[in-house]
Amino acid sequence: MTRNTINDIRQKKNNEKIVAVAAYTYPVANLIDEFCDIILVGDSLGMTIYGHKNTLDVTLDMMINHAQAVVNATEKSFIMVDLPFGSYEKSKEQALESAEAVINKTGCDAIKLEVTTNLLETIKYLSENNINVVAHIGLIPQHIERLGGFKIQGKSSEDSEYLKNLAQKCQEFGASILVIEGVIENIAKNISQNLEIPTIGIGASPLCDGQILVIDDIVGIDQEYSPKFVKKYDNLSENIKNSMKKFSNEVKNGKFPTKDHCFF
Q1: Residue 181 annotated in active site
Q2: At what angle do helices 120-128 and 92-106 cross, to 10 degrees?
């Protein structure tokens, strides 16, 4: 099996919908690889794996460790990795140092940045240094305090024009893919239709070139967090609870382990 390249992903625009999933561990990435075009090792692992209230405490080492596991577990998917808060905003040189550390230590295919206008030169600098950059606009969780919470973006005419202009600038400055999160449908649609690079939506338009959700949301592990844009395709939380209940009961009642599970 050959791993998807950036050219493979680009060629899907207007031809085939792109399937992207955020995942963080070896066994899960190994299970989903055949069904994905892209796997994102997202800084959402701060909440999903570590129980943090947001993504702001995620470190570069955490991202590298999880990215190594996902890359090693997969053969087909294009792997992109978030640069966490504080690892790229200071300067374009800092961003390059962080990006190279992630790529060199993991073998991933692209770096994702949460982008505002002041980071356009960073996109250009990374791209000029042969790094595939995925630009993330709209509801950008690393800026959640500035945005005043998890609020849908693009509702005002000023905000919608800002997002459309920012998307065009991301492409112009060298972004390879654009992630659009939490943006009202008609603005996300407009952005996607007016770009040459692929767009990946999450809480955006179905007319984006692809869609991404977090694996925990897809399979129904996280029962506390369920935003409107999530569709749960299973209810693993109940399956896990039922399995644990059976295990607990069998241990307490002496039904596990049996001789079949012992060595003689």
Answers
A1: yes
A2: 50
